[in-house]
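Researcher: Go.
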Amino acid sequence: MSWTEERVSVLKKLWAEGHSASQIAKQLGGVTRNAVIGKVHRLGLSGRATPSRPVKRPPRLARPKPRVLPDGSVKVATPATPETAAPRPVERSEVMAPLPPLQQADGEPASILTLRDSMCKWPIGDPADPKFAFCGRKSDCGPYCSEHAKVAFQPARKRDSRKGAYDYVRRIAG
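Model: Structure:
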């Protein structure tokens, strides 16, 4: 297969319309997707007028269903706002007060040299400070004791909660 002027003009037209390389290869026939991509690159064609993939829309939220109360009245639940629906991160001070390092058998706190696999590796203090130490308590599973694991491992948050808030306001405003 060779790239004739006619095939190149069809390629340029389809590329500008936003067709994918696979779609263009099918229409031209006798050429692979990679050959189309290579030719587009050699021709130096710029971006497309429209994206080749459809834009993903946010999922539609279910409307609240009316609920009939025992007295016969109907109540519609108000949807939760993104601010109340998303779990907020737990602050370290809310979970626990700072734990002092556990004193080892020799009376010294755990250091990098005395840490073992079964000990909590939560750093306490400034590493540049001579009083810097590690928690040293028994680690339940993983690198931290249960108290420090509560701080270290928190549930994942929604990536962009503000976007959801704007969509919610837009839906209400109609």
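Model: The first helix runs from residue 5 to 17.
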